[in-house]
Design a protein that fits this description.
heterodimer, A: 340 residues, two-stranded antiparallel ribbon, disordered C terminus, B: 257 residues, alpha/beta, six-stranded mixed β-sheet, 24% strand
């Protein structure tokens, strides 16, 4: 009975948000249509960031990988005259290939070193864009075409582009959701929970981590293509590390435990940024305050609020550790005494 | 390739492992026959766990070769060795703590699924019926191990005795030829220990060869046909339990001279 009521609520909530997503731009002004489009792209970025984070690493090359998607499509459409509809999958594929390339060195590192190595890889890519004339140097590329007309739908207005972005991002989100709920997703979860046990039962942990990174990066690349063609330009500045910080802030604010976490995070953060739009120079400071506040009040992010309200909190505050989380070096001390 | 003797399952030839200048395992030879229960004993720090780590691929020997059924497995990664049919458990119970007992076993079934990622994405009928079938088989395995009644519990919340048995169940789910148990009875009370030994004997009766490291001498004596004794990384004695307890070098290793 209770289950059915929750299901009904869930369907209602999804229906309402779908309606909002579809109708909001119609009644809002041009500026907000623009913000909404970018928000939807950010949601895909944050969700794919979490997908990669789930295998155990904070990937600081995320926006560089997104940029690879954008740059690939820019080169193909502007220089070779390809269609946007070919550039879209190609951007994703190139992003995946780059992830494959850096997964070999980067996935051999863990934790702190993983984000250092990915940070370096991402910056290296950005410098390549700036230094080489082939990539348009510091000015990047202009004049990326709008998506070509399909089924007599034209994509020359902000509104039509918004719906295109929503359609493609929803499809990607659905795929990412199904992947997480699949057996593959369960395996990834097990690998983060106990990598040694996984190896000992015959799971190739490295291959699973690498494929998560590669698949996650495909969707990141797709987001990059959408972003590039929506703006009509790609520049190294667009894909700077500041953008990475924004996505990471959104993921921390929303929480990584649930699929909805990064989505909530992006919406919250965008709302906050818009409220303080006139105080633009304060925004980075605001991000910092928000991260610290969220980590202290809701260590599992905003997505944990409904669960906490229902009193089913499993939240571990940073200063209260469960006995099971004793650091490894103390294991010997708590090991049960055994007779010789 | 090493000459394949059909009676021998595991073969170690002059295996060496050093940690810095300390020899953890030194010129170690070992032969495990098919279908036996072998006990590996020795004082703390004798190198028993290091030996397990070497055989299961978590450590790489500096010298020497390891064969499983005549195929060399030296230097393979742990998951490859597991796929060859050699599965180990860990000294500190190692489970997927956040998931249920049933899900723990299902994870170890991963090699048995036939329908791939597309079926899972579409949640096809085939994938769902396969999922049901696997759940049935996992339940069977858990009931055989005597923990079928707790299959819905979260693994991390179980008492230690059940956790240890679940650890063995996970290893068995991989369908091993050779099972390495690292102190399966550590921290268990006498009743739980005898239950565990009972389980190990029934595992062997299904055709799985077992090697176990154990400190509880009484349990080892009643379970194993042959004991191998290690001290300072070397094999100091090998033989049936009755012989081993009276062996002068074993007494010396345990009690000093």
């Amino acid at each position: 009975m209770r289950d059915r009521r929750i299901n009904l609520l869930l369907i209602l909530a999804i229906g309402l948000s779908a309606l909002t997503v579809l109708l909001l731009p119609v009644i809002s002004s041009g500026y907000y249509r623009h913000i909404l489009t970018l928000t939807v792209i950010d949601i895909l970025l944050a969700v794919s960031f979490r997908a990669i984070q789930k295998m155990g690493g904070w990937n600081f090359a995320h926006i560089a990988i997104m940029g690879i998607g954008g740059y690939t499509s820019a080169l193909l459409t502007v220089k070779l005259g390809w269609s946007f509809w070919l550039g879209l999958p190609m951007g994703g594929i190139m992003a995946s290939l780059f992830a494959l390339l850096i997964s070999w060195p980067c996935l051999r590192t863990e934790g702190f070193y993983f984000f250092l190595s990915t940070f370096a890889a991402g910056e290296a890519i950005r410098q390549v864009w700036i230094m080489f004339e082939f990539f348009g140097g510091a000015n990047g590329f202009f004049g990326l075409p709008h998506p070509e007309t399909v089924f007599r739908i034209r994509f020359d207005t902000v509104l039509s582009n918004y719906y295109l972005v929503v359609a493609i991002c929803s499809a990607c989100l659905w795929l990412l959701y199904r992947l997480e709920k699949s057996r593959l997703g369960n395996t990834i979860k097990s690998i983060t929970s106990n990598p040694e046990l996984c190896e000992s039962i015959g799971i190739n942990t490295w291959a699973h981590k690498a494929s998560t990174f590669i698949v996650g990066s495909f969707f990141t690349g797709v987001a990059g293509v959408l972003f590039a063609h929506y703006n009509g330009l790609v520049t190294p500045k667009e894909f700077s590390v500041l953008y990475t910080y924004k996505i990471i802030t959104a993921v921390i604010v929303g929480g990584t435990a649930a699929f909805s976490g990064p989505i909530v995070g992006v919406i919250f953060l965008t709302g906050l940024t818009e409220i303080f739009r006139d105080l633009e120079q304060w925004v980075p400071l605001l991000y910092g305050i928000v991260i610290i506040g969220i980590l202290l009040l809701f260590p599992e992010g905003l997505q944990s609020i409904p669960r906490r309200l229902r009193g089913k909190s499993s939240v571990k505050k940073p200063f209260h550790r469960k006995s099971r989380d004793v650091p490894e070096q103390y294991h010997a001390a708590i090991e049960p005494k055994r007779g010789e | 390739m090493y000459r394949n003797n059909t009676m021998q399952l595991l073969n170690l030839k002059g295996v060496n492992k050093f940690f810095g200048s300390v020899a953890a395992v030194q010129n170690f030879d070992l032969e495990i026959r098919k279908g036996e229960i072998r006990g590996l004993i020795g004082p703390n720090g004798a190198g028993k766990s290091t030996l397990f780590n070497l055989v299961s691929g978590f450590l790489r020997p500096e010298r020497g070769k390891i064969f499983l059924e005549g195929h060399e497995i030296t230097g393979l990664s742990p998951h490859n060795i597991a796929r060859h049919g050699l599965v180990r458990t860990f000294q500190l119970t190692s489970l997927f703590n956040e998931t249920t007992v049933l899900e723990n076993v299902l994870m170890a079934f991963h090699r048995r699924y036939r329908f791939g990622i597309l079926h899972q994405l579409m949640r096809s009928r085939k994938a769902r019926s396969e999922e049901k079938e696997m759940e049935g088989r996992a339940t069977e395995l858990l009931e055989m191990m005597g923990i079928g009644h707790i299959k819905g519990e979260t693994a991390g919340d179980l008492p230690l005795g059940f956790q240890r048995i679940l650890g063995v169940a996970i290893a068995l789910a991989v369908n091993p030829k050779l099972l390495l148990l690292d102190e399966p009875a550590a921290g268990l009370n006498p009743k739980e220990t005898s239950e565990m030994m009972q389980q190990i004997r029934s595992v062997r009766s299904q055709g799985v060869t077992v090697v176990l490291v154990e400190h509880d001498m009484k349990a080892v004596m009643n379970t194993c046909e042959t004991l191998t004794v290690m001290d300072f990384g070397k094999k100091i004695a090998e033989g049936p339990p009755e012989e081993i307890i009276t062996h002068p070098r074993v007494i010396e290793a345990y009690l000093g001279n």
